[in-house]
């Protein structure tokens, strides 16, 4: 058994910051329409993350794991983040009604379903799934914030607050790091989680007409 932090090299190797969509974001090569598509599509993942954490929490409860209470705290915060994403979408001119009513691309739907299915495995599977999603969030959030300011004139509180919150992800990460996992299985689960996360962005690229996804 080992700490989930041993997954860090794999997570770095498959970083979402290497994905063509985020590369274009950081270079100012996206249009406002691209960002609007992203906001509506990615909302499908953002709105499902509380449920993914809930799956982990349920399994922690069954094991009487001492971190169950902290995992529930993570879930509550993830639910609050859904509202913050709505504010980000609003800064792009997308109403809450439009955001909630949006039907995501099939590729995005399949990728999010894969993440949910990973969390439907063992407690450790769920922890690895979440750690793989959150380990680089501070770095990703900072890159997105900078891009919004530098290239897209989106520096308002509504535009920035979701990403500001994810600069504070260390508290969540400390919870996941408190769980030991099987080295080989955790590598396999992390790989699937990272592939699914990149697949979400692939779906956004398909809709935006961005190549090399």
What does it look like?
The protein has 213 residues and is mainly alpha-helical. Helix content is 75%, strand content 2%. It has 11 helices and 2 strands; from the N terminus they run E-H-H-H-H-H-H-H-H-H-H-E-H. Strands 1-2 form a two-stranded antiparallel sheet. Helix 3 (32-62) packs antiparallel against helix 7, helix 4 (68-91) packs antiparallel against helix 9 and helix 8 packs antiparallel against helix 9. The longest helix has 31 residues, at 32-62. It starts with a strand and ends in a 5-residue tail after the last helix.
Largest sheet: 2 strands, antiparallel
Strand content: under 5%
Cα gyration radius (Å): 17 Å
Distance between the termini: 35 Å
Backbone structural class = mainly alpha
The helix tally amounts to 11
Number of strands: 2
Strand order of the largest sheet: 1-2
Mean pLDDT: 97
The parts where pLDDT drops under 50 for at least 5 residues are none
Compressed to H and E, one letter per element, the order equals EHHHHHHHHHHEH
Fraction of residues in helices?
over 70%
Oligomer: single chain
User: Rough shape?
Assistant: globular
Chart the SSEs and their pairings.
Blueprint: E1 2-3, H1 8-13, H2 20-27, H3 32-62, H4 68-91, H5 96-101, H6 106-119, H7 123-134, H8 137-152, H9 157-165, H10 170-177, E2 180-181, H11 183-208
Antiparallel strand pairs: 1-2
Helix pairs in contact: 2-8, 3-4, 3-6, 3-7, 3-11, 4-9, 6-11, 7-10, 7-11, 8-9
Brief overview:
The chain is mainly alpha-helical. 75% of the residues lie in helices and 2% in strands.
